[in-house]
Amino acid sequence: MDSGSGSEQAEEIKSGNEQESTEQPPKKKRYHRHTARQIQEMEAVFKDCPHPDDKQRMKLSQELGLKPRQVKFWFQNRRTQMKAQQDRSDNLILRAENESLKNEFYRLQAELSKLVCPNCGGPAVPGGVSFEELRIENSRLREELERVCAIASRYIGRPIQTMSAAPAMMPPSLDLDMNIYPRHFTEPMASCAEMMPVPMLPETASFPDNNNLYLMDEEKPVAMELAMSSVNELVKMCRVNAPLWVRNNENGKELLNLEEHARMFNWPLNMKHRPSEFRTEASRDSAVVIMNSVTLVDAFLDANKWTELFPSIVARAKTVQVISPGVSGTNGSLQLMYAELQFLSPLLPTREAYFLRYCQQQNLDDETYWAIVDFPLDGFHNNNLQSSFPLHRRRPSGCLIQDMPNGYSRVTWVEHAEIEEKPVHHVFSHFVYTGMAFGAHRWLSVLERQCERIASLMARNITDLGVIPSPEARRNLMRLAQRMLRTFCVNISTSSGQLWTALPDSSDDTVRITTRKVTEPGQPNGLILCAVSTTWLPYPHYQVFDLLRDERRRAQLEVLSNGNALHEVAHIAHGAHPGNCISLLRINVASNSSQHVELMLQESCTDRSGSLVVYSTVDVDSVQLAMSGEDPSCIPLLPLGFFITPVEVIRDASDHEGKPVFPPSAEANNGGHISGCLLTVGLQVLASTVPSAKINLSSIAAINNHLCTTVHQISAALGSSTPSCPVNGNGVGSCTETNAAPEK
C-alpha cells in the first residue's frame, strides 16, 4: 500500500542506522521490510493517534514484534509523508485559485478598457484616475453639499434633504407591457381626530430573553441520560399499539392511554407533578414523504431549515446551545432549542417552549431508523416563560424516520405535550381539545406537502408554463413565493407578541385587527393595518379552495378583483395535487380605466390539515429581479390570503364549557357528522407611508367593510341561498353573521 511503501524505505534506513551504531558498518546496508500486518496495525493506530507516547509505542512494538525505535521512526516518517501529501494538495488548490484570479483580473481589465463616458464618449477613467481618488473627491463634494444645505436651511426655516439614495439599477422588464398601480379601498383613509386604540407590533420582534438558560458541564451527562431515555420512549410510542394507543370509534383517531403510559414510562428526574390546570395532548400519525432520511435529519437539526420546512406551524425557532455535536453533526447530536408554534388565526395564542432535541440512529428489526426526539428541561431550570401565552411543556415527542427506495422515507410522528388550561375561543375549541390544532396529523400533513415542494424546487427536468426563462429563474420565483407565504402566516397569527383588538361590531367575536410599523425591507414601509376574520361555511373545504385558487372564478368576486380579469402568464406545479402551484398572474384592467395593469404572485397549497391561498401584487421589475438571480429579500410584499380548515365532527359536539361547536342550522350527513370548513380571511393594507402615523376609525371601518364584503361574496358564489350581510349604522358590517356562525 502507498502509505506503507514510502515510510518503509525511510524506516528501513533508520533501522539500519540503529544496528550500525553497535556494529561495524557493512559494505552493503541491510533492509528490514515490515509485513503487511504490521503496516495495517500501525496505520489503524495512526488514524486515531498520530503521536503515540512511549507506553503506546512499547505496547505496539510488543504486539508486532518490532523494536520501539522502529515503531517511533515509522510514525515519524508517516507524519512526514502525510504532511507532504497535504502540502501538495494545498499547493494544487492555491495554484488553481491563483489561475482563476489571474483570469478574472484579465477579464475585468478588458471590460474596463471597453467602458466609455456616456457624455463625452471618451475613456470612463481618463488620465489613469484611481478609484481611491474618485472616492475621496466624492466624499469632499458630499461634505460641501451638506454645508450648503445647512446654510440654506437657516434662511428657509426647515431642513433640506441633502441627497436621496440613488435608484437601483434594474434589469430590463419582462416583455409583457405592464406597470404597477397601488391597490386602494374606495373608502377614504384620511386623517381623523377620533382615534381608536389599536395594538402596535414593534418593528423587529426579537427572541425572548432566555435568562442565561444554558446547561452547565456537570448537567450535560444527565441531559444525555435523559436523551437516551426519551429516545426509547419515543420508539415505543411509535411502534406499540394497544393498550398504549386506543382508537376512538367516533372519528377513528388514536388516543393515548394515559394510565398505560404512566405505567410504561418513568421519567428519570421525576417530572413535576402535573397540576390540575394542565391538560395533556397526545397524537400519532404516519406517512411516506418524498425526502431521504439524511436530508430530513439535517433539516430538523438546523433551526432555520426547520422553520422553512414548517412555515405555517413554526413561527420562529433558534438553537440556544449545542450540548453535543454528535458524529458528523447528526448521530448523537443534542441541542437546547427555543420554538414558537402558531395556528393561522389571531383567535388562538401561540405556544412557546424551551426544550432539548436529540438525534440518534438506531437499528430496529434489521432496519436503520433515525429518531428525532424533543424532551423538556425539567430538573435543570424553571422553564416558565414570562408571557401571556399558555405554558407549553413538550413531553418526549418527535418522529421515527425510515429510509425507503427512490429517496422516500416513512415518518411516524408522535406529539405529546402538557398545556396550561386557558380559555379557548369557541370557534377553534374543537381543534384544540381534540389535538388537531398542534397534533401529529397537522405536522405530518405539512411535512408531506413541503417535501413535495422541495423536490419540485430541486428538479431540473420539469417543464413550466409561461414566461419563466430558466430553471434558476424558476427556483428564485419559488423562493419569493415561499417568503410571501411565510410572511402571511406570521402576520395573521399571534406570533412574536403580536396583539390584536376585537371589533365591538362583530356579533360572534371573530374579527380582529392590528397595526404594525414597518421600516425594514421586504414589506412596504409605513403603517400596516391588518384585519382577520374566521367564518363557518357549510361547504367542503376543497370546494372553497377550488373557488379561491382559480383566478378565473375569483375574478368574478368584485371585492377581490375590482372588476378586472386575471390572466396566468406563468405556472409552477410543486406537488401531486393540481392545487399545489405557484402562478404569476396579469391583471387586465378594463380599457376605459385610467389605471395601469399589474402583476400578481399567487401560491396555493393544500394537504390533509387544510389549504392556503396567498397572493400579493408585484411590479414587473421586481419579478425580473427575482428571476435574474438577485437577492429578492428587498422586494416589498404585502400578502393577502385565505386559510381553509376542514371540519367534520359529530352533530351534537360541544366544547369544554358545553357550548355547541357549530351552529344548530348546520346539516349532518347520514353518519350524524357535520361536514364543512372554517374560512379565515386575512387582509392587509398600507394605511400610511409614515410609520409613526396613528390609525383612525375611517381606516378601520374601510378594511372591516372590505372584509365583510369579501366573505359575503365568497358565500354567495358557493351557494345562492346565503343571506345578505347586515351593515351597522356606522358603516361597519359584521361579516360573520352571513353564515350563522357558532353561538357564543
Q: What is the residue-mean pLDDT, rounded to a whole number? A: 77
Give Rg in angstroms.
Answer: 33 Å
Percentage of residues assigned to helices: 25-40%
- The end-to-end span amounts to 81 Å
Q: Any low-confidence stretches, pLDDT <50, length ≥5?
A: 1-22, 164-197, 200-205, 382-389, 721-744
Largest sheet: 11 strands, mixed
Structural class by helix and strand composition = alpha+beta
Strand content: 15-25%
Global shape: globular
* Separate helix tally: 17
Extended strand count: 21
How would you describe the overall organization of this protein?
- This protein is of the alpha+beta class and 744 residues long.
- The chain contains 17 helices and 21 strands.
- The strands form 3 sheets. Strands 1, 12, 13, 14, 15, 16, 17, 18, 19, 20 and 21 form an 11-stranded mixed beta sheet that branches.
- A hairpin with an 8-residue loop joins strand 13 (501-502) and strand 14 (511-518).
- The longest helix is centred in the N-terminal third of the chain and has 47 residues, at 68-114.
- The model is unreliable at 1-22, 164-197, 200-205, 382-389 and 721-744 (pLDDT under 50).
